[in-house]
Design a protein that fits this description.
single chain, 176 residues, alpha/beta, 6 helices, 30% helix
Length: 176
């Protein structure tokens, strides 16, 4: 099955509904092809919502061939893409902004590759407004017995670059 066939459906500006893990990864793959150095994505969602699946797709879109997993215990993973690195953070275990100093996050914000931060919403002041918030949520109301529920992926921009990313992703999925 091609990526286009797997792409989620667009339900509004920067909002998509994914019916499968493959569809979430396909959306991430498209997003990964349009990311640039210094882009910051903060992924928010419950455990099992699909944040890491989206990140796997982003990595694939950037040409990363390594297995991408959530860095819950290491806090940060760096993956080498075709033209730039992907910085992947998981801040789930942190609860105080002072803890960010030791994560390496400040060293890569605005750096030579995009930064994907899971569980970063509690540190949005420290991360700053140059970010794109990505909300991933299970649509449990639409669940059928024995079938994974669809996911909604909603992007919220806080700066001009974020608005560009939302617009580019919308166009890419519509053309899918």
């Amino acid at each position: 099955m091609s990526d286009a066939a797997q792409l989620p459906r667009r339900t509004g500006e920067g909002t998509f509904v994914s019916d499968s893990q493959e569809s979430t990864i396909a959306l991430g793959r498209v997003l990964g092809t349009i990311l640039q150095p210094g882009d910051v994505l903060v992924l928010t969602g419950d455990l099992g919502a699909g944040k890491t699946q989206l990140t796997k797709g982003i990595a694939a879109g950037m040409g990363v061939t390594d297995d991408v997993t959530s860095p819950t215990f290491t806090i940060e993973m760096v993956y080498e893409g075709t033209s730039m690195p992907l910085y992947h953070f998981d801040l789930y275990r942190l609860d105080d902004p002072d803890q960010l100093e030791d994560t390496g996050l400040y060293d890569v914000l605005g750096g030579d590759g995009p930064c994907v931060i899971e569980w970063g919403e509690q540190f949005s002041d420290e991360i700053g407004p140059a970010r794109l918030d990505v909300y991933v949520s299970r649509l449990d109301d639409d669940v059928q017995a024995g079938v994974e529920p669809p996911r909604q992926v909603r992007l919220v921009a806080h700066d001009e670059r974020g608005r560009q990313l939302v617009s580019q992703l919308d166009r890419a999925v519509q053309q899918g």
